[in-house]
Amino acid sequence: MFRCPQRSGLSAASARGARGFSLLEMLVVISVIAIMCGLIIASYGGGHRKAMRRMVDQRNAQEIVSLGVYATVAGADFVVVNDKHATVTNLINGTTGRHGIWKGKIFRLGGIDAHRLPDALAFVKFEAGLLLYDPAGGQL
Question: Whole-angstrom Cα distance, residue 130 to residue 123?
């Protein structure tokens, strides 16, 4: 008499499925991971852009102050007392040195976008008729 081996309680389909994940399950997991990575990268990029804007504003402020120092040493008449914006506007328009080796030299501030000027002026302070760089940007 022929005797059949005993079968376990698993069917052939369930035994086959126990070996791994289906293609659909893998695609869903990969899609979720991709969406999460996109959100993380986007949030990092926002902070990076803000830091870059601040750095550009600080660099513009340093350029304003440097040119202001040179123009002051040359005796140029560009300072509007207690008015940073008007003083910097005079530097943008150009001012001429009156003393020393810079006599007759025109000091003109270029390369700063007009719409970025107020942000750069946040890092410039005005004391005793001099433009000074303020790395804190008026925030203590």
Answer: 14
